[in-house]
Write a structure and sequence with these properties.
CATH topology of the largest domain in chain B: Heat Shock Protein 90
Radius of gyration of chain A: 18 Å
Structural class of chain B: alpha+beta
Strand content of chain A: 15-25%
Number of strands of chain A: 12
Distance between the termini of chain A: 25 Å
Order of helices and strands of chain B: HHHHHEHEEHEEHHEE
CATH class of the largest domain in chain B: Alpha Beta
Number of strands of chain B: 7
Strand content of chain B: 5-15%
Shape of chain B: elongated
CATH superfamily of the largest domain in chain A: Response regulator
Radius of gyration of chain B: 31 Å
Strand order of the largest sheet of chain A: 2-1-3-4-5
Number of domains of chain A: 2
Largest sheet of chain A: 5 strands, parallel
CATH architecture of the largest domain in chain A: 3-Layer(aba) Sandwich
Distance between the termini of chain B: 35 Å
Strand order of the largest sheet of chain B: 2-4-5-7-6
Helix content of chain A: 40-55%
Number of helices of chain B: 9
Oligomer: heterodimer
Largest sheet of chain B: 5 strands, mixed
Number of helices of chain A: 8
Number of domains of chain B: 2
Helix content of chain B: 55-70%
CATH topology of the largest domain in chain A: Rossmann fold
Shape of chain A: globular
Order of helices and strands of chain A: EHEHEHEHEHEEEEHEHHEE
Structural class of chain A: alpha/beta
Largest interface: A-B, 21 and 28 residues
Chain lengths: 235, 351
């Protein structure tokens, strides 16, 4: 079967690699595995995978060093597996060009959800050359990009310009964490010491207007100390 | 940082010596009571030794004092003279006194740190004991069930599924335990200062609830938050851990609970966090050392301990302590109990 998505798993722990492979294969993906960074590099070049799952702690190199290499080769999405690290490490990884990260230990559901979201995002981006997506819809929330209009269950939500820009940015990368820095750079084009707070205040207002409550956020999820993630669109 | 401390200590030493020299001059000028002077200098050196807590400052300043005494306050005045035995003897005596007193203060200091170290060592040993004990139970399930699956080819699908389910549950429990241990090592790591980042209260509560719901999907939590936009500087991972632990603690130990509430309100410059339940409350004898001890109680044999009585709450206590706060627990009159801690909010200059 050649029409399956090809996923390259670079992970030196044989057991983890095995179970990730099993989960992915039983969900209809084709999986290649590499137990070291150098083998991973070769596999990456010769097989052109659709997605890379990359462990940070490899025996022969730091996984973080592989990200710039893969970025140079193209836009292949990368999901990073990391042992519980602090927020700073996550931000570094994301800002280096990884598309998402999963913290160890993780379960089947989480892994599959991230894989799906990441693949879908990269496909959308590829489509974007031809067709520009005109809307985003999830759980009753509808964003019409060309009209800059947002409605929740049919009712229009009045956002300020900045607030709308933030929502649109998150929606166009739905399913993926955008770091504070990433958002700030795209919205305000410059960062100052108060930027993160400015973003947090805006986000609080957006949430209020969308009618979201702590523990019941339907649209925008928090990654404390890292950034925000918009829920993936309905199919 | 270190250099700054040294400069401060040197400055303090010089200041004390100058002050005592001036006072002595003044006293002698007014009253001609020369006998007071050595006492004044001894006092100064004693204070220096006490404050700087270092040999070198005490000894140097006692030398200086002896010289000053010899120079200004013994005959011949304002001239060094080491040939008069009286001066020499009093100098030696003073040197001895000051050296001894600085040695003494340093000894006290060493003993203090030694005691703190022993205390910490004891806590660590307690923790290790509690943890290794707590780890054994889930590991038994995981090891036993997985070897049953690997070694018995003729298990039915149903049986395999049951065993695997058990493995999953206990592995999840282990995950929680490991999170707690990581938190402890993060704090325990030789007084490393916490890296606090400004965290939005609503976002914190949101992640806590998500994490809690993942493990206890059936337990609802009532949430009461202030309407204002509140930012609290904290180590988010650790405080999240505290709140999850407290909620989890209620689920596991507040028997008969029907209502679980997370309430946060502002009081002065603090955000006060409260976890209420309406369960069975906490027995009085437990209340006293709820946060300090791990309940490896002596009267029960080690293997009929209920698991997870141990480290959760003491982890909470040390995390809050590292945030310069204190965590308390009390029984409520109407039944159940409340856990409470406060964190300082960010001073707001931005709306």
């Amino acid at each position: 079967m050649s029409n399956k998505f090809k996923i390259l798993v670079i992970e030196d722990e044989v057991n983890i690699c095995h179970f990730v492979k099993t989960i992915l294969e039983s969900n209809g993906y084709q999986v290649l595995d590499a137990h070291s960074g150098s083998v991973g590099k070769m596999q990456f070049l010769s097989h052109c995978p659709d997605l890379v799952i990359l462990d940070l702690g490899l025996p022969d190199m730091d996984g973080n060093d592989l990200i710039p290499f893969m970025r140079e080769e193209g836009a292949t999405p990368i999901i990073v597996l990391s042992a519980r690290s602090n927020e700073k490490d996550k931000v570094t990884t994301l800002d280096a060009g990884a598309n998402d990260y999963i913290t160890k230990p993780f379960g089947t559901e989480e892994l599959l959800a991230r894989v799906r979201a990441t693949l879908r995002n990269s496909r959308q981006k590829m489509d974007a050359d031809g067709v520009v997506r005109s809307s985003y819809a999830v759980n009753g929330l509808l964003i019409e990009y060309d009209r800059r209009r947002i409605t929740v269950k049919g009712e229009e939500v009045k956002l300020t310009q900045t607030e709308y820009n933030i929502v649109e940015l998150l929606a166009s990368h739905s399913g993926r964490v955008l770091t504070y820095t990433e958002i700030i750079n795209k919205i305000w084009r410059y960062a100052d010491p108060g930027s993160i707070k400015k973003l947090q205040v805006n986000m609080a207002n957006i949430r209020k207007k969308l009618g979201e409550k702590p523990g019941e956020n339907q649209y925008i999820a928090n990654e404390l100390g890292v950034g925000y993630r918009m829920v993936q669109e309905d199919d | 940082m270190k250099l700054k401390k040294v400069v401060i200590k040197i400055g303090f030493t010089i200041l004390m010596l100058v002050i005592s020299f001036l006072i002595s001059l003044f006293v002698v000028e007014l009253t001609e009571m020369y006998s007071v002077v050595p006492a004044l200098f001894t006092l100064a050196v004693f204070i220096i030794a006490l404050a700087t807590r270092d040999y070198i400052y005490g000894i140097v300043s006692s030398f200086v004092s002896v010289l000053a005494l010899n120079f200004a306050f013994t005959f011949p005045y304002f001239k060094f003279n080491f040939s008069i035995p009286e001066n020499l003897v009093s100098g030696v005596i003073m040197l001895t006194i000051t050296t001894l007193s600085s040695t003494l203060t340093i000894k006290i200091k060493q003993q203090e740190s030694l005691r703190a170290e022993t205390e910490k060592e004891k806590m660590r040993a307690n923790l290790l004991r509690a943890v290794s004990h707590d780890l054994r139970t889930p590991l038994t399930t995981i090891y036993g069930s997985s070897s049953a699956i690997v070694e018995n080819k003729e298990l039915t699908k149903e049986q395999v599924w049951k065993l695997a389910e058990g493995i999953k549950v206990d592995a999840q429990w282990l995950m929680g335990m490991v999170e707690n241990l990581l938190s402890v090592t993060k704090i325990d790591n030789g007084n490393v200062k916490l890296i606090k980042t400004p965290v939005v209260l609503d976002e914190l509560v949101d992640s806590v609830l998500l994490r809690f719901r993942k493990r206890y999907p059936k337990q609802s939590v009532e949430v009461q938050l202030p309407d204002e936009f509140v930012i609290i500087p904290m180590d988010a991972v650790l405080i999240e851990q505290v709140l999850v632990n407290l909620l989890e603690n209620a689920v596991q130990h507040a028997h008969g609970m029907t209502e679980l509430r997370l309430k946060v309100y502002e009081k002065d410059d603090n955000a006060v966090f409260e976890i209420h339940d309406n369960g069975c409350g906490i027995p009085k004898e437990r209340l006293a050392n709820l946060f300090t001890g791990y309940f490896v109680s002596e009267d029960a044999p080690a293997d009929c301990q209920k698991r997870n009585m141990g480290i959760g709450l003491s982890v909470c206590a040390s995390i809050i302590k590292a945030h310069d706060g204190e965590i308390t627990a009390e029984n409520k009159k109407e039944g159940g109990c409340v856990f409470r801690f406060a964190l300082e909010m960010e001073k707001d200059e931005y709306e």
